[in-house]
Amino acid sequence: MVDIARRRLFTRAPKAEIVTEAPQRMPWLVGEQAFVDGCTRCGKCIEACETSIIIKGEAGFPEVDFHVDECTFCGRCAEVCPEPLFQPKEQEPWQQVAVIGSNCLSLNGVECRSCGDMCEYAAIKFRLQLGGTAKPMLNEKDCTGCGACIKPCPANAIQMKRDTSIKTGNADELSR
């Protein structure tokens, strides 16, 4: 078994600041424990993913890797799954938002707006600073958790944070 955290030792990208408890899973899953208990590790979701972000993770369970691409919420992973592990697509896809870490280039005086350029939902905007670089501002209510901002970030400063304050089916109730 490969420890992903140890693999990062050999990469040039800085380590991520935020560590999630469980691996990133596909949208609309019923829950981590139900997924682990019910997933047969058949790999159909991996083959069906239109952006190839679903990979075989630890113990063969599928995981999402936003360093490959973003989630388009196409729902193919849920459609091909032979097990009842997914909620209806009318529900919120997942309870997560992007978080910009302190190693962000813009926060450290280097002009960079790659995350904002890639955010289709305009959840990341930049506030101009007099005599300095524009600073990123994340509107969590607009963030879908799609991960489009992660791959283009040259500093590996953006991660996903699970947000349990998001009510399923009503993303407008973020409490921050």
Describe the structure.
- 15% of the residues lie in helices and 14% in strands.
- With 176 residues, the chain is of the alpha+beta class.
- It has a two-stranded antiparallel sheet. A two-stranded antiparallel sheet has the order 3-6. A two-stranded antiparallel ribbon has the order 4-5.
- The longest helix has 7 residues, at 32-38.
- Residues 16-20 and 166-176 have low confidence and may be disordered.
In brief:
The chain is of the alpha+beta class and 176 residues long. Helix content is 15%, strand content 14%.
Helix and strand topology:
Elements: H1 4-7, H2 32-38, H3 44-48, E1 54-56, E2 62-64, H4 76-80, E3 96-100, H5 114-118, E4 124-127, E5 135-138, E6 158-162
Antiparallel strand pairs: 1-2, 3-6, 4-5
Keywords:
single chain, disordered C terminus, two-stranded antiparallel ribbon, two-stranded antiparallel sheet, elongated, 176 residues, alpha+beta
Strand count: 6
The major sheet is characterized as:
2 strands, antiparallel
Structural class by SSE content = alpha+beta
Order of helices and strands: HHHEEHEHEEE
Based on Cα principal axes, name the global outline.
elongated
Strand-residue fraction? 5-15%
Distance between the termini: 38 Å
Instruction: Estimate percent helicity.
Output: 10-25%
Q: How many DSSP helices?
A: 5
**Overall radius of gyration:** 17 Å
Low-confidence stretches: 16-20, 166-176
Average pLDDT: 85
Main β-sheet, spatial strand arrangement: 1-2
